[in-house]
């Protein structure tokens, strides 16, 4: 199924890559990495690994093929005069840190205070995934999601809070499991008005 913009609308941001579509220099690079890590890339168990890894990375980074703003184009104006906060809570997401290309796994809370219209609630998660499925730092991810909603939906306020665990801190380096990073971006009324900010943070459970 395609939407009005001719893009896949089935939850996948891109189609899976056909084996032939993985360029040779990419598989060569992964083979080099395996050898450098200390294993033999030609042994049976690893012989198809470069192709699998290449396909997996295209999937992890599918956000580069997406323009997240497009998800906010279809809006609804008839919502019975609803004029309070809309919050999508506990949205699980995965990303990769741009420093180590290691997984960032977490959840996001995305809220806005509508002005003239609302958006389909799934679209907030689509915006999140569109930015998360790239090489990221959590601060930029948080800012990009909030800015995209602010610029395209033009609401009275946007609040984004992201809590995540970084594998570059748990599986390597400082090796500190159980630690979570929290980032937030408040815009409009949630930035300017203390009561609105407290209300949205309470709804988020933060
Ligand atoms: N601010 C921020 N830092 C991040 C994020 N993801 C990873 N990092 C940090 O990026 C930093 C990179 O530091 P470097 O000193 O250049 O790299 P490194 O030697 O591998 O550092 P260690 O992780 O401390 O071993 C580390 O402190 C990571 O914890 C993120 O989303 N935001
Ligand atoms: Zn990292």
UniProtKB/TrEMBL annotation:
Residues 27-204 form the GTP cyclohydrolase I domain. Pathway: Cofactor biosynthesis; 7,8-dihydroneopterin triphosphate biosynthesis; 7,8-dihydroneopterin triphosphate from GTP: step 1/1. It catalyses: GTP + H2O = 7,8-dihydroneopterin 3'-triphosphate + formate + H(+). It is an enzyme of class 3 (hydrolase). PROSITE patterns: GTP_CYCLOHYDROL_1_1, GTP_CYCLOHYDROL_1_2. Its EC number is 3.5.4.16. Belongs to the GTP cyclohydrolase I family. Homopolymer. Toroid-shaped homodecamer, composed of two pentamers of five dimers. This is GTP cyclohydrolase 1. The lineage of its organism: Bacteria, Pseudomonadati, Pseudomonadota, Alphaproteobacteria, Sphingomonadales. The gene is folE.
């Amino acid at each position: 199924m395609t939407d009005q913009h001719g893009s896949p609308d089935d939850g996948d941001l891109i189609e899976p890559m056909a084996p032939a579509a993985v360029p040779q220099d990419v598989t060569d690079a992964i083979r080099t990495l395996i050898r450098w890590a200390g294993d033999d890339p030609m042994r049976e168990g690893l012989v198809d690994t470069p192709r699998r890894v290449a396909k997996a990375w295209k999937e992890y980074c599918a956000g580069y093929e997406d323009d997240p703003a497009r998800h906010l184009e279809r809006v609804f104006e008839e919502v019975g005069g609803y004029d309070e906060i809309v919050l999508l809570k506990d949205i699980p997401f995965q990303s990769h840190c741009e420093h180590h290309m290691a997984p960032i796994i977490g959840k996001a809370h995305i809220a806005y205070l509508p002005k003239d219209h609302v958006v389909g609630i799934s679209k907030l998660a689509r915006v999140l995934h569109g930015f998360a499925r790239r090489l990221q730092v959590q601060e930029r991810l948080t800012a990009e999601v909030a800015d995209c909603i602010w610029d395209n939906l033009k609401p009275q306020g946007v609040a984004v809070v992201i809590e995540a665990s970084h594998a570059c801190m748990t599986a390597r380096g400082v090796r500190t499991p159980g630690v979570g990073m929290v980032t937030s971006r408040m815009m409009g009324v949630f930035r300017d008005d203390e009561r609105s900010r407290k209300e949205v943070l309470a709804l988020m459970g933060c």
